[in-house]
Design a protein that fits this description.
460 residues, Serine Threonine Protein Phosphatase 5, Tetratricopeptide repeat, Rossmann fold, 2 domains, six-stranded mixed β-sheet, three-stranded antiparallel β-sheet, 46% helix
Length: 460
């Protein structure tokens, strides 16, 4: 089966010629300019905890909670974790971090999480609407002049270049414009990066204004639950990914129960329709929104996973083949009779992994579930030829031509089978002539026909 990869499998209906050409002709390239190899170029965390207020009432455990959260962020792989405790968390320092330090350093493909544990307060605007604020080390609870208001945080989120920004506030604070999380459409998505690249600014606060956060065993219920969520308890769909929205839902439910319904954490989306990733799982397991339930939803989800697998094969990344196979397996879990997925799976096992047994199994399932697709029979024929089952391979190729008599690459493969494996010159000449008549242009075919003493003028 001596032929180039471009001509070894031109699966018109599922578009695999594009993959073959890309993989065989395009040299390995660097990552796309401006795109990280992972989800984020850099992850930033700022952890602020204040026990020993200068003028406001002192707190117990805030610094300890901050250190526990900072340690959790480091374990999650955050590159920069800035810890600011007690007198270092002055009004001037907090405003400097928000107004100058982070906006100067954070890039477009970065993630920023700001965690605060300390006092919070609220004033009212002219419309009697609450204006929440965080109390720095040198400020009074009842005086907003030195405070970091929620409007300051919103302005920071507008100025910072980060892709994802998450505020986690272990304080009783209100005043956000609460908006329900938006469901993400299944349509128009070719790769998981399209969802994880969507802008997201989100906030999770420990309680609403006027509530007293519950503390047990020296640590607040909010932080205890937040840390448990990061360790996996918040992974509601058990896919290995932990998103800010999952943390928000988990913390709100657990803290409400632990407090006897006296403390109600609030989660809000301030900007964008994305979702901050806190724990990154296996890329093929990522899915935005709920799992499909109806047959139509499962079919759409299977097609989506197939499209993602196809897209991965064009990315020239080290793990793209493995991820593509994972995507195909996921597609087939959604729709076990999805014939195109079996075709692509058989092709990858045959041409990329040289696993002919697995390729044969997938090829037979492709024929079973997509008999009207000539690519099913063509793929199976290539596998059988590779395994030395030439009679069966011939039958599969001929069946592909029953479905599509003008499929030139099948005629080429038949000619190769007859000339190289079966040693039947007459049939080889017939197949090669038909290949040229249906639009083929391989010079080696013309050379073979010329040596065989046959006219090889293709039809116009």
């Amino acid at each position: 089966m001596a032929r180039s990869l471009q001509h070894s499998l031109r699966l018109c209906r599922v578009g695999l010629l594009t993959v073959a050409c890309v993989l065989s002709l395009i040299p390995a390239a660097n990552a796309q300019l401006g795109r990280p190899e992972g989800l984020y170029y850099k992850s930033w965390a700022v952890v602020i905890g204040i026990n020993d207020y200068l003028v406001a009432p002192k707190l117990d455990g805030a610094v300890e909670e901050g250190k526990a959260v900072a340690d959790a962020f480091r374990k999650l792989g955050f590159h920069e974790v800035l810890e600011v405790y007690n007198k270092d968390a002055s009004s001037k320092r907090m405003h400097f971090i928000l107004n100058e330090h982070l906006p100067r350093k954070v890039g477009r493909q970065d993630r920023v999480v700001i965690f605060f544990v300390g006092h919070a307060g609220a004033s009212q605007d002219m419309h009697n609407k609450d204006i929440g604020y965080l109390v720095p080390w040198d400020a009074q609870v009842s005086n907003v002049s030195k405070a970091v208001t929620l409007d300051h945080l919103k302005e920071f989120s507008r100025r910072v270049m980060a892709k994802h920004v998450l505020f986690v506030l272990d304080a009783a604070v209100s005043g956000w414009d609460i908006t329900p999380p938006q469901s993400l459409s299944l349509e128009g998505r070719l790769s998981p990066e399209e969802d994880t690249d969507k802008r997201a600014v989100q906030v999770l606060s420990a309680a609403t204004q006027g509530e007293t956060p519950v503390r047990k065993g020296g640590q607040g219920a909010f932080v205890t639950t937040f840390l448990a969520g990061l360790q996996g308890a918040a992974d509601d769909n058990k896919n290995g990914w932990i998103m800010a929205s999952e943390i928000g839902t988990y913390v709100a439910k657990q803290v409400s129960q632990l407090s006897g319904n006296t403390q109600h954490p609030q989660f809000a989306r301030l900007d964008g329709d994305g979702d901050t990733v806190l724990v990154e799982g296996k890329i093929s397991a990522y899915r935005a929104g709920p799992d499909p339930k109806t047959e139509a939803e499962r079919t759409a989800a299977a097609k989506e996973e197939y499209d993602k697998a196809f897209g991965l094969l064009q990315q020239q990344k080290e793990k793209s083949l493995e991820e593509a196979l994972d995507r195909l397996e996921k597609a087939l879990r959604y729709s076990p009779a999805f014939g195109d997925a079996y075709i692509l799976k058989s092709y990858l096992y045959l041409e990329r992994l040289n696993k002919t047994d697995e390729a044969l199994t997938a090829g037979e399932l492709a024929v079973k579930y997509a008999p009207a697709n000539p690519d099913s029979h063509y793929t199976l024929g290539l596998v059988l030829q590779k395994k030395g089952r030439f009679t069966d391979a011939e039958k599969a190729f001929l069946q592909a031509l029953v479905v599509n008599p003008g499929y030139s690459d099948v005629h080429l493969s038949l000619g190769d089978l007859y000339s190289e494996d079966v040693k039947d010159r007459k049939k080889a000449v017939e197949s090669y002539q038909r290949y040229l008549e249906t639009g083929g242009n391989e010079n080696r075919v013309r050379d073979y026909l010329s040596k065989a003493g046959s006219a090889a003028t293709p039809l116009k």
